Amino acid sequence: MASFFSRLKQGLNRSSQKINAALTHRTLDDAALNALEDALIGADLGPAVAARVIQDFRRTRFGKDVSTEEIHRVLSQEIARVLAPVATPFTPDVAHKPHVVLVVGVNGVGKTTTIGKMAQWFAQRNLTSMLVAGDTFRAAATEQLEIWGQRVGARVISGKQGGDAAGLAFDGIQKAREDGCDLVFIDTAGRLHNKGALMDELTKIIRVMRKIDETAPHSVLLVLDATTGQNALEQVRVFKELVNVSGLVVTKLDGSARGGVVIALAENFGLPVHFVGVGEQADDLQPFSALQFAEGLVAGQIKDDAD
């Protein structure tokens, strides 16, 4: 089976094709730089990052003949520089047992499967998880979480459809304490079209869980779908208003020509990017690497010894 980084490389290939299509001029004149800037913006790096890269090229290499490899190298170095501060592993706080993780995001971004994959990631590192099916408005979410629970050997706390998510969160933390679990992952609904109701629900979940652990949640992870491009920026803004988002997980990089949105997120918010996902399988979610991502985005040439 192809390695994770091979699949990430393939996923980012659609973004890198946009960039490479602009590199038809060997001489970095105005036309070449304008085409490259348009390509970078088209790959959703964001205008600020694109402008800075082009300004650097204009200052140091304008009018010169440069190889595609040199452009790739400079681009990947700049992108990696932006991403390095946010490429932060997710590490449970040993001072809290269980470490309570509230998982938020709009519907369809992959919150439920992300929880299952994270539970497997930590199970492989001998950490146990409790999964709470807090998206009570979507029956499929509960079913998905129960399937993941069976796969990774994690207990799942669920209730009736349309039930009280806050009560489930309370029960999940309580049972996780009784079972000695290291982590509790709490799924949530993502009805962004009804922002007021979503805010009320998230506020209630946090208020109720603090009756059993006044320090919870210890992490609030926002899951984002890379295929939404710049819309992901608005989702971060909204959820930062609703809850204290502590980190990001970016999914569906295997199906997006907008992988550059990760750079725009880093530039605009500086929130840790803990994991990225490239598919539906358990091993398709892995910790985020700034350098490998940058190289894959620019040239589709991620270095992977496993290939």
Automatic annotation (TrEMBL):
InterPro entries the UniProt entry points to: AAA+_ATPase (IPR003593), P-loop_NTPase (IPR027417), Signal_recog_particl_SRP54_hlx (IPR013822), SR_rcpt_FtsY (IPR004390), SRP/SRP_N (IPR036225), SRP54_GTPase_dom (IPR000897), SRP54_N_sf (IPR042101)
Database matches in PROSITE patterns: SRP54 (PS00300)
Compartmental location: Cell inner membrane; Cell membrane; Cytoplasm
Top enzyme category: hydrolase
Catalysed conversion reaction: GTP + H2O = GDP + phosphate + H(+)
UniProt domain SRP54-type proteins GTP-binding: residue ranges: 272-285
Keyword Nucleotide-binding: yes
Binding positions for GTP per the UniProt entry: 105-112, 187-191, 251-254
Superkingdom assignment: Bacteria
UniProt cross-references to Pfam families, sorted A to Z: SRP54, SRP54_N
Membrane topology designation: Peripheral membrane protein
PANTHER family listed in its UniProt record: SIGNAL RECOGNITION PARTICLE RECEPTOR SUBUNIT ALPHA (PTHR43134)
Biological function: Involved in targeting and insertion of nascent membrane proteins into the cytoplasmic membrane. Acts as a receptor for the complex formed by the signal recognition particle (SRP) and the ribosome-nascent chain (RNC). Interaction with SRP-RNC leads to the transfer of the RNC complex to the Sec translocase for insertion into the membrane, the hydrolysis of GTP by both Ffh and FtsY, and the dissociation of the SRP-FtsY complex into the individual components.
Protein known as: Signal recognition particle receptor FtsY
Species this protein is from: Candidatus Kirkpatrickella diaphorinae
Gene expressing this chain: ftsY
